[in-house]
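for the writeup, i need someone to sanity check this before i put it in the appendix. the sequnce is what the collaborator sent (i think, or maybe the updated version? ugh). structure was predicted straight from it, no edits. if anything looks off just tell me and ill rerun, i have time this weekend
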Amino acid sequence: MEKDQKELYEYARKRVKQKKRVYFHFILFFVGSIFLFIINKLLNVNPDHDWYLWAITAWGFLFILHFIKIFVTESFINKDWEQEQIEKLVARQQRRINQLEKKLDNTNDTTTT
């Protein structure tokens, strides 16, 4: 039981760390976007082009990908889930092998008698 508790603790700790990073990246995105806007509008850096909008859009796209990875993908499909699926497939394959061996043994028994 202690091993299971430790694994659950480590998984929870990892998830909390990932979520903290997402929140940090959101704050960084928000502050960075405001900074880009200020540089462009207040300091009139290249006023003919709205380059900061493209930068904010690209940055926002990366943030959304990061958010989806942490809150959607990782919550359903993680290493533990993959390991469970592998164990299920191996168990199913082993049952099938055992059935085939029994069938083969029964066939050999009936042919030898």
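The CA atoms of residues 30 and 52 lie 13 Å apart. Helices lie at 2-41, 51-76, 79-112.
thx in advance!!
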